[in-house]
Structure formats: C-alpha cells, structure tokens
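Long-time lurker. I teach an intro course on protein structure, and each term I like to show students one example going from raw sequence to a predicted 3D structure in token notation. This year I'd like something fresh instead of my usual example. Would anyone be willing to generate the tokens for the chain below so I can use it in lecture? Attribution to the forum is fine with me.
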Amino acid sequence: MKEKISQGNEVIEIWDWEKAVPTGKSVLRGDAHRYGVAHEGVHLWIIRPTVIGCDVLFQERASHKEQYPDCLDITVGGHVPFGTVSNKIQKESMEEIGISPGDDEMIDLGCFRYEEKTESLFHREFQKVYLYETRRELSEYRFMDGEVSGIYAVPLEKLETMMQRDISFSIEGFNGRDIITREVGRKDFHPLLFADSMNLYMKIVLTAIHQLIETGTVTVMMPAPA
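-- Reply from a regular --
Happy to contribute to a lecture. Here you go:
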C-alpha cells in the first residue's frame, strides 16, 4: 500500500496531447492515469554483446508494484517528476538499476506517443526512448528504490521469436544477491510488450538494436508524435 500511495501522489508535468509539448502545469500521477492526462515518460533499453549476438536486458518489477507485479519489463522506465529538465533518464536509471549512462553513451530513438485505456486506467504518455550498449556484468547492477527485484539477459533471437509466438526458454539473471537461471515464456513478461498498441514501438526498438550491433550506427527513429 505504501508504494501505491507514494507513486499516486507523485507530481508530474501535463503535456498537450495534440501538440506534444509540455504545458508547465502539474498533475498528480494518480489523477493523470485516472483521467488520461498526457505526461512525459522515459525508457532505456540496455543491450549486452555476446559471442553470437546480444542480450536485451529486462528488469523484474517488484512484487508489490500496483501494476504488472513480478513481470519482466523494459530495462528502465518511469515518469519524469515535475520540474525535472535534465538527466531525466539518468535519474530513473540510477534509482532502478544503479547506473547513470552519459548522454553521449546512449542513442536517442526519439519520442513515442502512447495510449492505453482499460476499465481502471487511462494512460497517455509521450515516451522518450533510449538505447544503450554495455558489457557490464549482471552482478554489477544495483536496485536502489525497491521497485525492481532483478535484472535478466534475454537473447535477442529468443525475444524476436517470442514477439511472434509464445515459446519457453532459459535466461540468466541477478536478483541482487545471486546469479540465477529460470525458464520463461510470454506469461513472465509485461503483457503490453505484445499488444497491438506496441507493435510499431517494438519494431523500431528491435530494428535499432540490429542496426547498432551490425553496423554500429542507428538510423531508425520513433515517428514524430506531433
């Protein structure tokens, strides 16, 4: 319950949904998700080179999370607190997994206009998306704010197959104490990764990963939100 209250009372900035610009006005995070008030979010996808390709790192959401507890999700993701004008993804990354990549280390994939509506949630968000390649070992990550319980390395080829159909495979992870191995399938991941609303987003992310590991240069970008 403590986690729900603190996050619901977090103050974030209202964005104009049509113009895709910040308004300078504030809203409680809980109200934004209740009434469909557009706001800003940040995403960081981390990949780790391997002998045969690369792994995509996924965080494991803590069991007490209000939404999608225990699911494997984007490496780093969160809302931007009101008044934050710089180091937005660095702040979120440090809180969740204990690292703070420099702007020159990450690849900016642009901004994705996202909308999700359910019986209990109306989520409108402009998601600033970044890609970061590092050889850092899983055991080097630290989970600082209690919202993440582990980090897992998912082989790119397995992720791409799973985007097409459900499969079961083994992955390695770190839970803050030990390196562990577990079997996973679609049921273990955030369900929205496979939703129609995320098709374009995931296609661009996966294309960017391929471009980075194959050519060292990324040309694909999220579509302009405005």
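Some talking points for your students: The chain has a mean pLDDT of 94. The chain has one domain: 2-215.
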